[in-house]
Amino acid sequence: MEIARRKQEISLDLSGGSAATIGNFDGVHKGHARLIERVLAKARTRSLASVVVTFCPHPLQVLVGPHTPPFITVRDQKLDLIEDLGVDLTMLLEFNREMASLSPRDFVHKYLVDWLNVKELVVGYDYTFGKGRQGNFAMLTELGREFGFNVERLDPVIINDAIVSSTRIRDHIKAGEVFAVRPLLGRFYVVRGKVVSGESRGRLLGFPTANLTLENEVSPKNGVYAVWAQLNGRLLPAVANLGYKPTFEGKKLSFEVHILDFAEDIYGHELRVHFVQFIRPEQKFSGPDELIARIREDAALARRILAAPEAQL
User: Fold this and answer.
1) 276 neighbors 227 (Cβ within 8 angstroms)
2) 249: which DSSP letter?
3) What is d(CA 176, CA 160) in angstroms, rounded to the nearest whole number?
C-alpha cells in the first residue's frame, strides 16, 4: 500500500480515477472495514484505484486539544490494518486549522477531485465534513453531480443489537470488557510498544515481566488480564497486569506482561499484546507471599482461558 501526505507524493496512477472513502477510522472496526471493502468492490468493478482518506493528527486533537479521548489504534497500527484490507493508497492528510476552515466544496474540490480524481465515493451513515461540519451526504451528492463522481452512503453495521462504533468499543475497553470488543473489531484489542526496563520486582518474585509504556491508546480498566504476547511473529501465552502495584505502594501506572514458560531477554524488542479476557481487578495484598500465590492462580487461569477455542487468534 502506498502512503502519501501531499499530492506530489502520490506515485500511483490516478488518471483513470479512484474509488475512495474518508474518515478517521479509529480502530478500523467492522463498520470501517465494510466501508473499505465496498470501496475495493467498486474499484474492481470500474478498474479504479482504491483509496482511503484519513487524517493525522486526529481532528479532535486540533479542535479539542488535551481533552481528546484516547485512541483504539495509534497511527501506524491504523495504517497497518488498512493495508491488510488490500487498499492501494492511503492519503494521510495533515489536519490543521486551515483545513478545518475549508468549506465542504473547497475540501472536495482540492482533495477528492484535484488530488485523487475520485469517481466513486463511499461514506458512512453519519459522515459530516468541512467547516462547522456543514458537509453531509446530501451536499456530497450535489457536489458529486457537479464534479462527476458518484456517492454511496452505507447503513451502520449492527452487532449484538447495537451500532458498531469507536465510542462503543472504547467504552467496553475502559470497562475491562475486552472480550466483548472482539466481534466489533474483528480481532482482539491490541496495544504495542518496546519493552523497557522496570523495577525488576517481578523477576525477584519469580515472575519476570516485560514492561511496556502505553502511548495514546485507550487504557483498559486496571487489573489482571489473560493475553497473547506477540514477539517477532510468535504468539506466546501470557498474563498482564495494568495498575499501580498497590502492594508496593506504587505511584506510577505500569503495564507488565509475564509471558508463561519464557526466559528470553527481550529488552528493546517490540511486543504486541492482545487482550483476551479480564481476570480480576487490581488489589493490595498483605505482602510478597500472598501476592506470589495469587500470581500463580492468575497464571493458571490465564492458561485455561487461552486454551479455549474462542481465545485463539
Assistant:
1) yes
2) T
3) 18
CB burial class (10 A; 0-12, 13-18, 19+) of residue 45? exposed
Which of 17-31, 84-98, 257-271, 299-313 is least confident?
A: 257-271
- The amino acid at residue 148 is G
Cell representation of residue 149: 463522481
Q: Which domains, ranges and CATH numbers included, belong to the chain? A: 15-156 (3.40.50.620), 176-311 (2.40.30.30)
Q: How many CA atoms lie within 13 A of 174 on its CB side?
A: 12
> In this predicted model, what pLDDT tens digit does every residue of 256-292 receive, in sequence order?
999 999 888 888 899 999 999 999 998 877 677 888 8
Residues 6+ apart with CB under 8 A from 162: 168
Strands of the sheet containing 270-281, edge to edge, are 189-194, 270-281, 223-231, 234-243, 254-259, 210-212
Which of 2, 9, 256, 264 does the annotation list as catalytic? 256
0.85 surpassed by pTM: yes
Taking the CA of residue 55 as centre, how many other CA atoms within 13 Å lie in the half-sphere pointing to its CB?
17
Residue 148: DSSP 8-state: T
256 as an active site residue: the answer is yes
